[in-house]
Amino acid sequence: MAYAYDDQNIFAKILRGEIPNKTVLETDHSLAFFDIYPQAPVHVLVIPKGAYVCFDHFAQEASDAEIIDYTRAVGEVCKMQGVKDGGWRLISNAGEAAIQEVPHLHVHILAGRPLGPMLSKGPT
Ligand code: 5GP
Fold first, then answer.
1. pLDDT at residue number 121
2. Using a 6 Å CB cutoff, which residues line ligand 1?
3. DSSP per-residue letters across 63-115
4. Average pLDDT of the chain to the nearest whole number
């Protein structure tokens, strides 16, 4: 089934400049900004400018230029935020099971405190 993109989602509005954001980095194909409800001292979201719902959508349909730009943007934000020394986590929630709140691809870059286990314990 094709991915259905809702252009009224909050990150689409941020990209159109309809909602403000605290930008960390902007590139040709990507935008990084601070999460409005930070869960760690460093909590940055990185989104592609293209209309992709989630990571698998992006990985399947984005151009090589978009994928390279996005990957490099994540690396640049990590460098800018100095996450390397203490350790950090990259998360991308997709769909219902992962409780994806905003249906525009984003990765969370989290750092600056012990981040705990990858998942809360539950049935496998
Ligand atoms: P998800 O659960 O979809 O992986 O994460 C969505 C994230 O977007 C949450 O961490 C939430 O705090 C953040 N968020 C939601 N609305 C806004 C907003 O208007 N501005 C910013 N900067 N972050 C937002």
1. 85
2. 10, 19, 21, 33, 35-37, 93, 99-102
3. -HHHHHHHHHHHHHHHHHHT-TTT-EEEE---TTTTT-SSSS--EEEEESS--
4. 97
